[in-house]
Every structure is written in structure tokens, then in C-alpha cells.
Amino acid sequence: MPFVNNWNALGVAAPVIALLLILSVVALAIVLAKVWQLRSAPLRVSGAMREALALAQAGHYDPAVNRLSRHRGPVAQLLAGAVEGLAAERDAVAIREAFERQGTVVLMEQRDGLRTLEMIGHLAPLLGLFGTVLGMIEAFQALEAAAGPVDPAMLSGGIWAALSTTALGLAVAVPSVIAFNLLDQRSLRFAQVLDGLISELLVPDVAKPTAAPQP
Prior knowledge:
Structural class: mainly alpha
Membrane topology: Multi-pass membrane protein
Number of helices: 8
Helix content: over 70%
Domain MotA/TolQ/ExbB proton channel: 75-192
Family: Belongs to the exbB/tolQ family.
GO biological process, one term: protein import
InterPro entries: ExbB/TolQ_transport (IPR050790), MotA_ExbB_proton_chnl (IPR002898)
Number of domains: 1
């Protein structure tokens, strides 16, 4: 079979290529899972959510919570919890702290798997280079062991098999690094969105003047 013959031609580089293929599948699975997960946490705040925020700022807490409860996703849930805290007349600092704790959990879920993706981006080129070194060693060993005139095809075939691991390592690493940076920046922007929303919600409460003591 052509596939079996080509695979056998890779020699000692074959296990490295197999490992790189496994890493590529893992990286692709992480990226697809993150894209699917982030669909429920858009960076753009919807008009309905803005209306709920305006209701809460005006003191209409129950209608605001009802509107937020219609939205699926972590942002609406976090805002609903903060609005419920305002309705219960909790301190603004305590509401912000609770919001930030819950928001940190959401951010950690979004960043789950990113370290693995980053590791694959750094590890894949090194594995590719390692496979190339092994392949070159095997090619020159075969060249040394050959009796009689040296066939250039023997050396070129070994070099081809060796360099294929470097190419594959780069092919796995480049998309992994790009995906990691995009997802990492996206999580940072999401954190900024959360911080802006809770500040916008609590500004009226924080800015309320302290009532003068009754004489």
C-alpha cells in the first residue's frame, strides 16, 4: 500500500510525525471548543441588555432582572446578580466584589485550555526539529553502511523524510500560536467589558451624596 510504504520511508521520524499529528488534533479540538463556548459570551452588549441596565440605574430592579433572565450567557447572569444585590440594598463595594469573583470564574472557564494551546505552539517546532535530527542521523548512517557506489536517491530520500517533520512542526505551531493570541486577547477584552458594565451599573449608587445627619 502506498501509505504504508511512505510511512515506512519516514523511518525513525515516523513516531515524531505521529505525535505531531496528535498535537494538531488536540489544538484543533481546543480551538473549536473555545469558539463554541465564546458564542454565549459576546463582547458586544445587546440593546436589550442596555435597556435592562438603564432600568436598574433608574431603580426599577425587578423589571431589569426579568429582562436579564431572558438572556442566556454569563454576562446577563452576572448583571442579574448585581442588580439583585442593589435591590437588596447591599453595599456597592460588596456587590462589585461578588461580581468580580463570579466574573473571575467565567474568565477562568474561557481561558481553560489556552495554556495547552500555547504549549503546543512552543513544543511543535522543537519536536519537528528533533525529528529532523533523528532523520538526518538515520540517513547518514544508511549512507555510511551502503556498499559500493552511493546512490544519491538514498540520501535525498532520507533528507526528505527528515525535513518533513520540521515542516509539520511549523504547520502545527503557527496556527496554534495565532489561535492562542487571538483567544487570549479576546478574554482580556471580555474582562474589560465586565469591568465597564459593573462600573456603569454602580456609578449612580456610588455617586449618591451621603444624607446629612438630622439635627
